[in-house]
């Protein structure tokens, strides 16, 4: 192998050991949306953001989109009577809470069965599953608020389906969002390796935002 190739490899390894090789920033996902001026003319475009919402948490306290401003957050959709993927998703979200700096990260688990999943029922679910929930909010509200938020906001599939276990179908993905509400990643919430990758990406995103 030519000496120049050896020299290049040596420099590359040395730069990696010094932390000078930078990772590529996480992508922006969800597509771009137009920006309008006061007359309704399109003047620009920007990356999709999670829209405003107002829901109730497990303590019956109002939780709004504005409360996430400037914070990295991870969201998933579930329901407490789910007999299939939800228990695995919640266990992986609990694991994520343990391996992530949750002083700087907010976790959201939003029910798709708000008719039954009241704040009282969410509290019982948290207690029966021995979940430790600082900075982890279990949210409920009206169906008309939650389904558009999930499908149009977080870009996840969900629907009532009497033929499916528990009466609903929904995505198993966790969604990573930055401090401005941009979607920066989708991760299979039933897969431990994917959730580990999410934890690494959260750390990278926090470093990226701190450097701004």
Query: Mean pLDDT, as a whole number?
Result: 89
**Overall structural domain count:** 1
Radius of gyration over all CA atoms, rounded: 20 Å
The CATH superfamily title: Glutaredoxin
Short synopsis of the structure:
By secondary structure, the chain is α+β, with helices and mostly antiparallel strands.
Keyword list:
212 residues; Glutaredoxin; five-stranded mixed sheet; two-stranded antiparallel ribbon; 5 helices
Could you describe the 3D structure shown?
With 212 residues, the protein is an alpha+beta fold. The protein has one domain: 3-Layer(aba) Sandwich (Glutaredoxin). It is built from five helices and eleven strands, in the order αβββββαβαβαββββα. The strands form four sheets. The chain has a five-stranded mixed β-sheet with strand order 7-6-5-10-11. It has a two-stranded antiparallel sheet with strand order 1-2. A two-stranded antiparallel sheet has the order 3-4. α2 (86-99) packs across α5. The protein is globular, with a radius of gyration of 20 Å.
Task: Lay out the secondary structure.
Blueprint: H1 3-17, E1 32-36, E2 42-47, E3 54-56, E4 62-64, E5 72-78, H2 86-99, E6 105-111, H3 119-128, E7 136-139, H4 143-153, E8 158-160, E9 168-170, E10 173-177, E11 183-188, H5 192-211
Parallel strand pairs: 5-6, 6-7
Antiparallel strand pairs: 1-2, 3-4, 5-10, 8-9, 10-11
């Amino acid at each position: 192998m030519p000496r120049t190739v050896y020299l290049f490899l040596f420099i590359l390894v040395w730069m990696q050991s010094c932390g000078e090789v930078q990772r590529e920033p996480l992508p922006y996902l969800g597509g771009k949306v137009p920006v309008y001026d006061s007359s309704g003319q399109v003047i620009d475009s920007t990356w999709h953001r999670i829209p405003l919402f107002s829901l109730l948490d497990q303590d019956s306290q109002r939780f709004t989109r504005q409360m996430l401003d400037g914070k990295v957050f991870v969201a998933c959709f579930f329901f407490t009577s789910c007999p299939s993927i939800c228990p695995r998703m919640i266990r992986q979200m609990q694991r994520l809470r343990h391996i992530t700096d949750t002083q700087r990260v907010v976790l959201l688990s939003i029910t798709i069965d708000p008719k039954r999943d009241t704040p009282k029922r969410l509290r019982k679910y948290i207690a029966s599953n021995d979940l430790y929930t600082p900075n982890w909010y279990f949210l409920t509200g009206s169906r008309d608020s939650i389904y558009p938020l999930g499908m149009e906001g977080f870009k996840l599939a969900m629907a009532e389906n009497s033929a499916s276990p528990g009466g609903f179908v929904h995505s198993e993905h966790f969604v990573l969002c930055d401090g401005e509400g941009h979607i920066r990643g989708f991760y299979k919430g039933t897969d431990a390796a994917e959730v580990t990758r999410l934890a690494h990406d959260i750390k990278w995103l926090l470093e990226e935002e701190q450097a701004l």
